[in-house]
Amino acid sequence: MQSFPGISARLRFVAGTHPVLNSFADEVCATVARLLAYMGTLALLGILTIHGWDQLQRLLADGPAAKPGWSPVGRSYPAFAFAVANSREKPVSYTILRHPEGGRKDVLRWTDSGKLAAEFEIYRPGSEFDPATGAALAARMGGTSELEAAGVLDSKFGAVALLRQAGVTDATSCLAFFKRVDDPALQFTGFSCQGDGLPARRVAIGCMLDRLTSLNSGNEPKLAEFFAQAELKRGGCAPARVMADRMISTDNPQLRGAF
Which of 64, 107, 139, 234 has the least CB density, counted as fewest CB within 10 Å? Predict the structure, then answer.
């Protein structure tokens, strides 16, 4: 039987797809795939860039991360006490604060008619060391006035600096105190608003210092020796002995200058 080549070739093209068309379709699919991959990469880079920018803005807004500071301790034994004649003179609260770097603060407070009347803080620094400042003392006293020198008190721990609220009358100004000891490392700070006028408040501070005792310093020989030596100088809570110099009088200190 006679064959017809032209007809057979046309029949094959009709039944299938021309090779040129197959190659073109493959190229189109590959190009589309590459475009999609490229766009996906650009989108991912854009997302990462936006996220990084947000994090940077947040860091700039928040500033450097705050270091852990002082926190109250719930289960710890008091290390200090006050030798008082009656319960009315005992502090109404005893707070212990710890610092992650080893420091400890024992804070004792007295109230009068529901208001904070006096405070005594014993600070034993660790590697953090938080020195007392006039602004911090003034804030603890509940006022905004700066503190200025108000004389020197002679106590069983040695000379103690006194500070009063600047711009406040003697009758209404609370009286703060500050004492730093190098060996053992120790810092006494606090204030008294008890009594009428600065002379009475000097007496109140002198009594607080005179009555302060250490309870459990057995594991700290230097601290135990320091308090033992101080007890030999105890004055029995007599009227405060205020040291005067040519600029400060015991009755009405005139020295001025922010602490």
Answer: 64
What's the CA gap between 224 and 230, in Å, rounded?
10
Q: What's the mean pLDDT in 141-154? A: 87
Structure tokens at 148: 């200025």
Longest dimension (CA), the chain: 144
User: Per residue, what are the HEC states of 92-114?
Assistant: CEEEEEECCCCCEEEEEEEEECC
What is the spatial distance between Cα 249 and Cα 170, in angstroms, rounded to a whole number? 14
**Pair type for strands 212-214 and 80-82:** antiparallel
Per-domain residue ranges of the chain: 5-62, 71-243
- Separation CA 63–CA 165 (nearest Å): 34
Question: CA 156, CA 153: separation in Å to the nearest integer?
Answer: 10
Query: What residues does 187 pair with on adjacent strands?
Result: 123, 180
Assess contact for 148 and 163: CB atoms under 8 A: yes
Secondary structure E strands in the chain: 71-72, 80-82, 93-98, 104-112, 115-124, 147-155, 158-165, 175-181, 186-192, 212-214, 241-243
Backbone phi and psi for residue 115, each to the nearest 5 degrees, phi listed first: -105, 150
